[in-house]
């Protein structure tokens, strides 16, 4: 079954480029386009794509506001921008985005991101993880969240490693467990904390005080 994608960007040539790239994949289909945030919100609600590629800088309603308006819907959003700026990264993730990529990212990374977020996970590249950490380093120290008490000692270890940007196989190697076991721990953490994916888990780890920027 194909991953249904909507592309939202104010430049027609960019939309066409993404369409050609994604439609060339056997498991993907671009089902719609939008030229601004308002149109993106309407078309996501009408077409219910699995994934929406959302440009940040669009006329009228921008990509961040459109992402906020679509929070709670099944469609997973990957925010795209040519401006690799800290405030955009953090605001995009807080707005509910499942991933953040710059338009300069390799085509292979974009395709991987679509597959990853369509499968229910979040796409957080090392560069984005670093910027999230830097954003917290500049902010006031967070208070410890009582929600952490619901996690076991091993789950807290896993969450700390997630906050460092480690994948499930990397977490497994760090803790001398299998990647499958690490994945099970991650799933339990998300369930216990009521989080959507590992992107939200990374943000929670810093906001709750479990991890502090080094």
From TrEMBL:
HTH luxR-type domain location: 144-209
Response regulatory domain: residues covered: 4-118
Gene3D superfamilies according to UniProt: 3.40.50.2300
Gene Ontology biological process terms from the UniProt entry: phosphorelay signal transduction system; regulation of DNA-templated transcription
Keyword Cell inner membrane included in the entry's annotation: no
InterPro entries found in the cross-reference section: CheY-like_superfamily, NreC/VraR/RcsB-like_REC, Sig_transdc_resp-reg_C-effctor, Sig_transdc_resp-reg_receiver, Tscrpt_reg_LuxR_C, WalR-like
Record carries keyword Repeat: no
One example GO MF annotation: DNA binding
Modification sites for 4-aspartylphosphate: 55
Keywords carried by this UniProt record: DNA-binding, Phosphoprotein, Transcription, Transcription regulation
Record-given protein name: DNA-binding response regulator, NarL/FixJ family, contains REC and HTH domains
